[in-house]
Design goal:
Elements (H helix, E strand, L loop, with lengths): L10 H15 L10 H10 L6 H14 L2 E3 L8 E3 L3 H17 L3 H8 L6 H14 L8
Antiparallel strand pairs: 1-2
């Protein structure tokens, strides 16, 4: 009996999603829509030279999982992200907190600052804390 497909993203699937998100962020003429060939070219430009068939399979899987939408039925098919970076990254971080840190965000934060922070990292963290100070509660 075949096991059901995993809903989580594999490392390669996440690489494909980054290529799609980057294309959308660039505001290209295609309105953030990509073909398999364009994704393959973007991955190759980043040093990840995969076969066209491999990228096509990954795109198909991402479409089936609901991470990509096919925008039309003409060939070559064009795809756009169905789930944005913010949504996916929030989900992945939540999964990390549950699986690795037993649901404790405090444990994750302690681990992140366990090593010495650079001045830039400390400034960023202090800025985030200042921005969020008014919108949080002790039991959040």
């Amino acid at each position: 009996m075949a096991r059901p497909p995993a809903e989580e993203l594999t490392d390669r699937e996440l690489e494909v999603m980054h290529a799609v998100w980057d294309r959308q962020a660039d505001g290209d003429a295609g309105g953030g829509e990509v073909t398999v060939a364009e994704v393959r070219d973007a991955l190759a430009a980043d040093g990840r030279d995969l076969a066209h068939t491999t990228v096509a399979t990954l795109v198909s899987i991402l479409h089936r999982k609901g991470f990509l939408d096919r925008t039309d039925d003409r060939r070559p098919h064009r795809y756009r992200a169905a789930r944005g970076f913010e949504e996916v990254s929030r989900s992945l971080v939540g999964e990390l907190v549950r699986k690795v840190f037993g649901g404790s965000r405090e444990a994750l934060l302690a681990r992140l600052v366990d090593d010495r922070l650079t001045a830039a990292e400390r400034d960023l963290l202090e800025g985030v804390l200042r921005e969020n100070r008014n919108g949080t509660t002790d039991d959040a």
